[in-house]
Amino acid sequence: MTTDPLFDTAFLRQRIRTVADWPSPGIQFRDITPLLQDPRAFRLLVEAFVLRYMNAGIDLVAGIDARGFILGSVVAHQLNRGFIPVRKKGKLPFATVAEEYELEYGNATVEIHTDAVAAGQRVLLIDDLIATGGTMMAAARLLQRLEATVVEAAAIVDLPELGGSKLLKDAGLPVFTVCDFAGH
């Protein structure tokens, strides 16, 4: 979570809607669409990421399907860097490398093109939130298999009680989030 005293995380956090019991009973879904609809909030969000990474030596930004595409592509544009889509299995038209990971009820797979990144390139990995960390970890492994360096895993929201940010940190991956919803 950001600790910049000039950055008002409460303003952004207030624009994240909680939808109870979606997509299944007991889940508190954190919906970022109200934040994206508010021009001031969206601009502040993008600026938080751009200011953090503008001097970090990032070569590319990788965004995770699908909400990570929204933030990742805008941040890549603002940093004047290329964008890598990390897609769900079967969505990319060229040769891919895939990584399977576990979900609460089953498995899923993410893919990137085999030529998405060159060995040694420094990549910022972005998604909308970190829950269990499975998708973010799988995406990081994909990039690492292509010999890229994942500079940091970044997201708007951390759900620390689900253990994802700890999983990523324990794997040696630095993590940055704008706000968290601990205990909520």
From TrEMBL:
Keywords: Cytoplasm, Glycosyltransferase, Purine salvage, Transferase. It is an enzyme of class 2 (transferase). GO terms for cellular component: cytoplasm. It is found in: Cytoplasm. Its main location: cytoplasm. SUPFAM superfamilies: PRTase-like (SSF53271). CDD domains: PRTases_typeI. It catalyses: AMP + diphosphate = 5-phospho-alpha-D-ribose 1-diphosphate + adenine. Signal peptide: none annotated. Residues 52-161 form the Phosphoribosyltransferase domain. GO terms for molecular function: adenine phosphoribosyltransferase activity. One of its GO terms (biological process) is purine ribonucleoside salvage. Pathway: Purine metabolism; AMP biosynthesis via salvage pathway; AMP from adenine: step 1/1. InterPro entries: Ade_phspho_trans, Adenine_PRTase, PRTase-like, PRTase_dom. Its EC number is 2.4.2.7. PANTHER family: ADENINE PHOSPHORIBOSYLTRANSFERASE, PHOSPHORIBOSYLTRANSFERASE DOMAIN-CONTAINING PROTEIN. Homodimer. Belongs to the purine/pyrimidine phosphoribosyltransferase family. Catalyzes a salvage reaction resulting in the formation of AMP, that is energically less costly than de novo synthesis. This is Adenine phosphoribosyltransferase. The gene is apt.
